[in-house]
Amino acid sequence: MTLIAQPQSMHFAEPLALRSGARLADYHLAYETYGTLNAERSNAVLVCHALNASHHVAGVYEGQERSEGWWDNMIGPGKPVDTDRFFVIGVNNLGSCFGSTGPMHTNPATGRPWGADFPVVTVEDWVDAQARLVSALGVDTLAAVMGGSLGGMQALSWTLQYPRRVRHAAVIASAPNLNAENIAFNEVARRAIVTDPDFHGGHFYGHGVLPRRGLRIARMIGHITYLSDDVMNAKFGRELRSAVGSDYRYSTQEVEFQIESYLRHQGDKFSEYFDANTYLLITRALDYFDPARLTGGNLTRALAAAAARFLIVSFSTDWRFSPARSREIVKALLENRREVSYAEIDAPHGHDAFLLDDPRYLSLVRAWFDRIASEPAA
Amino acid sequence: MTLIAQPQSMHFAEPLALRSGARLADYHLAYETYGTLNAERSNAVLVCHALNASHHVAGVYEGQERSEGWWDNMIGPGKPVDTDRFFVIGVNNLGSCFGSTGPMHTNPATGRPWGADFPVVTVEDWVDAQARLVSALGVDTLAAVMGGSLGGMQALSWTLQYPRRVRHAAVIASAPNLNAENIAFNEVARRAIVTDPDFHGGHFYGHGVLPRRGLRIARMIGHITYLSDDVMNAKFGRELRSAVGSDYRYSTQEVEFQIESYLRHQGDKFSEYFDANTYLLITRALDYFDPARLTGGNLTRALAAAAARFLIVSFSTDWRFSPARSREIVKALLENRREVSYAEIDAPHGHDAFLLDDPRYLSLVRAWFDRIASEPAA
Predict the structure, then answer these.
(1) Last residue of some domain: B255, B283, B311?
(2) Which of A250, A259, A287 sits opposite B120 (nearest CB)?
């Protein structure tokens, strides 16, 4: 049975104070829900998105067969997160370019698009905004919050900011913070965007141009880091693009290897739909997330507030958010005597694995949600 | 005793046929030599450079105390490659921007700088050009050829192209070819340069501008891949640049973390002295190198021509040219019953380690050259 998704939007008139000290006077959040909230209002699951995803988590839009949500293999009727049993909420974050209030919308102070003046938003700010949406949907306590990568950071942050409002948290392919190398890759991507002459200091909307060159480079860098060395070698290796056989063309600018063609294509696609200011904001939210910053680097103390039961999942070839980083979270939670299930999935796909159809991974998540469904609501 | 280096240049009037099918009608090579060629002409060591280095391998220039050659810790009087015993030759490759014929020089066909029309040069072409220089210096057979990274590829190629002219080869932090991930990083760097509006299709010299934005991005990407995750975390971690303490500034464009400041500085410096067309040419030479391409991917057959004795060195945290890649070379040589010494140095510094002062590494190279010095010339 095909799940039909229906994008929605909610306006929040109450100002939102941000960690930066700025405040948003009001804002919209784009969201979708799947399944039905039960009478006890105890079966809600919030799904948090990563860098370039949105509130469109599952299902397809009416009449658009190929518009599957970004986690459609995970969420839906009969799927690991079964929408016949759970009421699933997908939400687009502030600062995004997919519907929620962001840099492309009007800055009430100027009457023009926010552009680069959109305030810096953090994982904690996003969670605050999400919590209001969850309340507005009639849910006090979430059965679970879940996310991968940056989405996992939000899930973790929920358990610290709203410990009594979340019973379970699934933190997948994530980390307690970015390391120097992660920040470095984000910074190169941001510099590519910011130094693109078409960026115009982040106010390109008024110039009729888009910093596509910068976005392409940013996406190419990102894409390399999402994949593992192994999967790139298996998929592309040193294969030439030329159909002519094994002869090199001897060119510095033309595509010679398949991997080049693939990356250029990914960059081109991305630059058509993604907003440059959003890219800056979201990578910065990644950089800034660091719950242990306020406990002198002690993650155990930082996670002491958490009361949820956890599922932590990592993937063996993920070098962007390596298993070692997930184990730091596990260790800190165990030192706080929290209930944690941890799985390190042996998968060749690198960071991208959290979005893919790995049977062991999907059945593990299924089993975890089955247990939640069978628990009496607290 | 300070070694004083003296840059020199040699003109070659005989045309050079390149692997691409193009030919250079004539060319110059910049080079330096250190030490004295013995009467038997048996003590010459050729040093091949990697991406951004040059013929200035060792010593300093007269009156310029801080002008040390890029491998000055390795090569000089009393050093592992002892110029009191060896006659060492440093050579700048064709297509470079440090003196040898390259894109900034005049294209005889047009009377203007070559720019992007400089022919694509390969590792094999470089070795052919180097071989002529070695002959012109009166050396028939090299005691050794050595290089790290791309320089190691040249050393390896010497043993295949001129097996009777090289008795020993040191191939350090190198690989038998680039894998898909390596090519991918090169490609992103090239795209950053080529799509910089100041690149002008590679003919920016006539426009009074330089594609600095692209070069900066290229260098930042390169720099991340030269370092290990460990050393970046040890050196920078999540340290903030701000002297104000642990408070974030909450900015997407200002420097927030030390690692960002470091990378921007590296990018800025590089963009001041490196030529954009050279960057394209040298990364392409890296991409194209693949001696096993002509033997159906069989490296053992590809290396059958080698007659030299080998030293292969890799570094444990080098993820650009990992130890596994060096072991492929070792295996192929052993299958050909060649004499190989292999060392995998446990060093935290990533790919950069081959340029650094690791005592075990330096004494290993010293011992290897000591043995060469004590051998009777063949």
Answers:
(1) B283
(2) A250
B238: contact with A, CB 8 A cutoff = yes
Phi and psi, residue B59, nearest 5°: 75, -175
| Structure confidence by residue, pLDDT tens digits, A87-132 | 999 999 999 999 999 999 999 999 999 999 999 999 999 999 999 9
Q: Calculate the CA dihedral of residues A329, A331, A337, A340 and round it to 10 degrees.
A: 60
Token reading at B135: 């002959």
- How far is Cα A30 from Cα A38, in angstroms, rounded to an integer? 22
Rounded distance, CA B152 to CA B148, Å?
4
B206: domain CATH number is: 1.10.1740.110
pLDDT at residue B245 greater than cutoff 70:
no
Residues A51, A148: one domain? yes
Please give the Cα distance from B322 to B351 (Å, whole number): 8
C-beta atoms of B224 and A264 within 8 A:
no
Q: What does R_g of chain A's alpha carbons equal in angstroms?
A: 21
Query: A194 at the B interface (CB within 8 A)?
Result: yes
Backbone torsions φ then ψ of A212, nearest 5 degrees: -65, -35
How many domains does chain A contain in total?
Answer: 2
- Asked whether residue B224 is assigned to any structural domain, the reply reads yes
Among A30, A74, A70, A79, which Cα is nearest to A50's?
Answer: A70
Summarised one tens digit per residue, pLDDT across range B184-193 is: 999 999 999 9
Put simply, the answer to whether A217 touches B236 (Cβ < 8 Å) is no
Contact (CB<8Å) B220/A184 = yes
A192 touches chain B (CB under 8 A): yes
Residues with Cβ within 8 Å of A272's Cβ and at least 6 positions away in sequence, in order, are A212
Residue B1 in domain: no
Answer yes or no: is B173 within a domain: yes
Non-local (6+) Cβ contacts of B174 within 8 A are B147, B148, B149, B150, B151, B152, B153, B155, B156, B321, B325, B326, B329
Q: Looking up tokens 């590089």, which residue turns up?
A: B270
A140 labelled binding-site residue = no
Burial, B27: exposed, middle or buried (Cβ in 10 Å; 0-12, 13-18, 19+)?
buried
| A211 and A143, same domain (yes or no) | no
